[in-house]
Amino acid sequence: MTNKVRVRFAPSPTGGLHLGGVRTVLFNYLFAKKHGGDFILRIEDTDQTRFVPGAEEYIIECLKWCGLTPDEGTEAGGEYGPYRQSERKDIYRKFANQLVSEGKAYYAFDTPEELEEKRAEIPNFQYGHSFRHQLRNSLTLPKDEVQRLLDEGTPYVIRINMPSNETISFTDLIRGFVSFDTTLVDDKVLLKADGMPTYHLAVVVDDFLMKITHAFRGEEWLPSAPVHLMLWKYLGWEDAMPQWAHLPLILKPDGNGKLSKRDGARLGFPVYAMNWADPSGGEVTPGFREMGFLPEAFINLLAMLGWNDGTDQEIFSIAELVEKFSLERVNHSGAKFDFEKAKWFNAEWIKKVNAEALQEDVLTLLTANNIKVSDSTKLVKIIGLVKDRCTLLTDFILQAGYFFKGPVSYDLDAVKPKWNVQKEDFFTVFISELEQLEHFATEEIEGLFKKLVADKGLKIGDVMLPFRVMLVGGKFGPAVFDIASLVGKEETISRIQKALEAFR
Ligand code: GLU
């Protein structure tokens, strides 16, 4: 019997969540769900110096927004908890001690200053097989001296004892066979002087204890793999090691290197999933959510940054992605990020979802922009009418706002040069006829408007654009008679009156 698939997302809560991080979650999630497995969220917060308040809550909210809900984790609970590494301190120490007693790790008493000196003295200094014998550790010091130092409470770290001249390898699910020469790998710290494990020890211990079967993570973690492989071996857990998949990077638009937060700021697009407010300085880094992306679109575009189903299809729901996801179709090289394409995905999703589904988001946006919406049925109708014109949710402020609030300014350049008494007279009569109109609906308004155009010997084109500008303020929006009918009789008349004054 094969084990149930168990994958994990293991972020360090140090700040905003980069879109590459969300793609890592997504690929883990898709793989797990495709195989009927579980998705675990583990918070890797053992580096106390990098602790940032609010970062964990932020990550959880990002996952919620994206609809990538963990089956187990800090919030969901589960039988393999605690899921926050800072609460598992004793577990790691036990294994670190075990490794020391078996000679697979050792105590190192060198002070930061001593190590600094070594680094200054020896170019490319590494705490490893070539220098460890010159340093102050339990491999070089006599046994009783080590005991004395420990008894006196001298600060120490525990380092892995990396073998030299061995080749260690594994088969990556994406990159295939990968091997490393252990001689080139230094003796990484496993347990720090503050008693906390480093990432290397904690990740191996937890992947084992939490029975992780597969682990997708960013390519930047590949250099750490030999340390992890060695630890799996040293702890005697080799057979239980998860299968790793190192995902290629998401690249800058020009393909030159990894897409960073700075690139986003420089090129004017978000790199984080949601707005991140740095708690120390209050600096806000923009996010896709606040920029007006739908989570469906965000997920879809991330899936396509590194995967395709082998056809031309680009729009996928999460359910379809789960069904179609396959490792074989994950790209081996980095994917360039293209913000225009990202927006295209969003526009397609705004078209695709129904108006009701957008109601809450649009209402929140309009309210935040001081536009009062009194009638939700009307709002849904309006969303349906304008959504094909919106690329970002924020476009609804302009595209839907004027249905509830008359224009505060007009595109006078579009009207004034051709404005004349005849047109003014047309609208004055139009007002009085509208007042008489019993059934104020698109067809009736249009019928009345066209008849009056004919009566006055005008051309429809002469008065259509001014009517639009009267209602919305500019040259945009859906069919003008639809707008009038939704705005309502009284408001349409009042907008015409107000605009007539402005056009004079
Ligand atoms: N804590 C690591 C991170 O911040 C996890 C890397 C891994 O998945 O092994 O990304």
Quick rundown:
This protein is mainly alpha-helical and 504 residues long.
Number of distinct beta strands: 14
Whole-number average pLDDT?
Answer: 96
Per CATH, the superfamily of the domain at 6-79 and 204-248 is HUPs
- Ligand types: glutamic acid
Q: What would you say the CATH architecture of the domain at 6-79 and 204-248 is?
A: 3-Layer(aba) Sandwich
Instruction: Give the number of helices.
Output: 21
What level of helicity do the residues show?
Answer: 40-55%
First-last Cα distance: 83 Å
Query: Overall 3D geometry?
Result: elongated
Low-confidence stretches: none
Give a short account of the largest sheet: 3 strands, parallel
Instruction: Please list the strands of the largest sheet in the order they lie side by side.
Output: 1-2-3
SS content category: mainly alpha
- At CATH level 3, the topology of the domain at 6-79 and 204-248 is Rossmann fold
Describe this structure as you would to a colleague.
With 504 residues, the protein is mainly α. Among the domains are: 6-79 and 204-248, Rossmann fold, CATH 3.40.50; 89-191, Alpha-Beta Complex (Glutamyl-tRNA Synthetase, domain 3); 406-504, Arc Repressor Mutant, subunit A (Orthogonal Bundle). It contains 21 helices and 14 strands. Glutamic acid binds next to helix 6.
Keywords:
single chain, 504 residues, mainly alpha, Rossmann fold, Glutamyl-tRNA Synthetase, domain 3, Arc Repressor Mutant, subunit A, three-stranded parallel β-sheet, three-stranded antiparallel β-sheet, 14 strands, 45% helix, binds glutamic acid
